[in-house]
Each structure stands twice: as structure tokens, then as C-alpha cells.
Amino acid sequence: MPEGARGPEASGLRLVGHSDLGGFGDASQLIRHGDYLFVGHMLTKGTTVLDVRDPSRPRVAKQLPPPTSATHSHKVQIAGDLLVVNHEQNRGGHGGPPAPSAPDSERSAGFQIYDVSDPLEPRPVSFFETGGRGVHRTWFADGTTVFVSARPEGYRERIFIIVDVSDPVRPRELGRWWLPGVWEAGGETLPEGWPSELRYGMHHGLVHGDRAYIGCLDAGIAILDIADRARPRTIGRLEWSHDESRDSHTVLPLPERGLLVVSEEEVVEDGKGVPHQVRVLDVADERQPREIGRFPRPHGDFPTRGMRFGPHNLHENRPGSLISDREIYVTYFNAGLRVYDLAEPTNPREVAYYVPQTPPGQKAVQINDVFVDTDGLMYISDRAGGGVYILERT
After folding, report:
1. Span 172-181, pLDDT tens digits
2. Which of 52, 44, 35, 48 is nearest to 85 (CA)?
3. Counting beta carbons within 10 angstroms of the beta carbon of residue 351, is it exposed (0 to 12), middle (13 to 18) or buried (19 or more)?
4. Is residue 136 pLDDT above 50, yes or no?
């Protein structure tokens, strides 16, 4: 093992299998589809199709290239036999890939729809153009509607766009929503006194029924009524002090319990930023969300291990995956995957974790995304180069 590298650390979880994705291990979002796992890449590739019929020996079955030299496609969503892949312009900052010099012809902004009825031969169906910087994340679960976080021209940050794909050959926009102040081209200005170093917009949204739950970066969270797809409207907002809150990322609804779990994405390396949180909100009254609990942060020397230490994403309870309103799965960058018991929402309790061995050439792992299948297998990705790890409970 290279000097400074660490072996795996685990409690309650064990490694079943691993793939470095053929040496292109900068893995991001992942989703299981039948016998295959579809994996987005930060930069080196577009999408990998991983054969996981034997989870102890995952095998690369297909790899698609990036859309262009200046565009990455690191997010994947599947409903039925349709795969949605984002196209977002490469940029530096927040640990993302550097922005290469490239002509406009090499910059793609929107999302691509593929037919994956044959998973090994994804067939392009159509492309939805957003313009601007493109699409960061999507939510696509019902086969007819794609909920998009994108930054079109004229907006200072990302907005929420609802796209009808009931005819996948002809996707069409139904409606859009943004925080007041984001539409710069429309003359809107940021709230008075908004700190210039903080981000005001949205990360992405999860959808349940006629509600969308939006992480609003440094502006907290929003709950939207989307019953009228053409006119999404805000029904609830919650912000935290700028001294403590940063980068609201994923807002996971637990509708049967009237709760939300909110993860804040750590974007500063080496433990130098404001500590980020995973929060529990009571939304019995959607108009007035209130914080009732916080997840404990992992103990150990993670702040000094290098790269990012803090929360990122959650297992999103999407249809076709494990749906749990008690166990919450959190990716924690260099602290790996953490599993929490939410039996008492005011006092979440860590019950398991897995931190992979440090990959060759990396200071630390950077566990980015997680997908938990109905059989309990957990698939996690390392955005910095480690690839995909498959875990199970001990």
C-alpha cells in the first residue's frame, strides 16, 4: 500500500465487489437497471454500463464517451426503458473538472434521452436543449416527466424546469421556477445584503406526488406545489444563518412521517470550511418547516486526511430502489458511506459505515453518490478515481 494510504474501515458493512471502471474511475451518479448498473462520470467518460449480475465481480460491459470535449454527463436517471443523461459545461471550482478551452460547437447544454431496452446498445432518442451552462441533475421516475436543475442563459444560478417526455421524441417544457432574484436578464436582483461569496439559487429537487423538494444552496430549502406543472409555486421555505449553513443539496421527503432530511454538500477541502450538516425537518405544516434534529458527524481524523470531508448526497428512495423512512444512507466524501437510524428524528444515530481503501494516486476517497437496491446491496461511487464499490450488511 502506498505511503499515507489507508486500508478499508468498516462497521456493519462489508465489501462485496469493486470496479475501477476500466481505469476511468471518476464515478458520479449511479442507478441499477435490471442486470446492469449505469454510472455517470465526472469527466473521463460519459456513461459506463456495468454488468453486476455477479456483484462480487462487476464487469464493464459498455462505455459511452463524454458528449463533447467541453461537456460532462455525470448524472443518470432511468424510468422504464428510457435513460436521461445530463449535459453540463465543464467548469472549475467546487472540486469540479477544469473548464477546457473549446469553441461553442463543443459545448452542449441540456439532457439526452436514450432508449435502453437493450442496455448494451443505448440508442439516442432526442435531446432537450436548455442553453446556458446546461443541466446539473434530474429527477426522472414516472417515465413521462423530467424535473431538471439547469442554468439557462440570463439566470445567475440554477432554476427548476419541468419537461414533458411522454413523447420522448419531442420533449417539451411545461413550466419553470426559480428563487426571486435569480432571473438576472429579467431585471431581478439578489436580496438586499446577500453576501457576495454565497450562492443563491438551487441545487436540485426530488419529487413526490404534487410536491417538489428543493435544495437552495446557501439559501436553505423550498417546498413547491407542482400540481399545476405550468405554474410551480412556493408553499414553504426555510433558511439558516449564513454563519452555519452552506450548500443545501438534497432534500429527501419521508412523506409517511411528515419529515424531510436535508444534506448540505461540503465544497471546501481539508476541513477548512464551515462544518456542513445533515438536518431533520418537521413539515407537518408545509408552510412552516422547522428543524428538529441533526445527524452526528463521523468521528476521527477525517478533517486532516485531505480532500473533502462532509456530507454530499443521500439515497433518494426512488421507485424501483429500496425505500426506507427509517434508515438513511449518506455519502460523506472522505468518510465514505454512513448509515443512520432515524427511529428518533430528534436524535439520529449512526449504525454502520464503510470507508474504502485509499485508491492509488489519491489522498483520500471521495464517496459521492449512493444507490441502494431492493435486495439491500449498496452501490457507491468515488468521484476522484476509485470507481464503484458494492456493499452489503454484515
Report:
1. 999 999 999 9
2. 48
3. middle
4. yes
Q: Where are the alpha helices (DSSP H) in the chain?
A: none
Total-model pTM: 0.96
Neighbours of 97 (CB within 10 A): 17
Dump pLDDT digits (tens) for 250-298: 999 999 999 999 999 999 999 888 899 999 999 999 999 999 999 999 9
3-state secondary structure of 256: helix
Q: Report in angstroms the alpha-carbon separations of 346 from 250, 261, 293, 296, 342.
A: 19, 12, 4, 11, 8
Q: Are 152 and 160 in contact (CB under 8 A)?
A: no
> In sequence order, what E strands does 286-355 have?
290-294, 327-331, 337-341, 349-355
- Cα 52 from chain centroid? 22
3-state secondary structure 20-44: CHHHCCCEEEEEEECCEEEEEECCC
Q: Rounded mean pLDDT of the chain?
A: 95
Domain 9-393 CATH class label: mainly beta
Backbone angles phi, psi at 56, to 5 degrees: -80, -15
Q: In terms of Cα–Cα distance, which of 216, 232, 234, 86 is closest to 158?
A: 216
Give the start-to-end residue ranges of the domains of the chain. 9-393
- Give the phi and the psi of residue 256 in degrees, each rounded to 5: -70, -20
Residues 195, 216: Cα–Cα separation, whole Å = 15
Residue of 1, 18, 2 whose CA lies nearest to 354: 18
Sign of the CA dihedral running 20, 21, 22, 24: negative
Question: For residues 248 and 36, what is the distance between their CA atoms, to the nearest angstrom?
Answer: 31
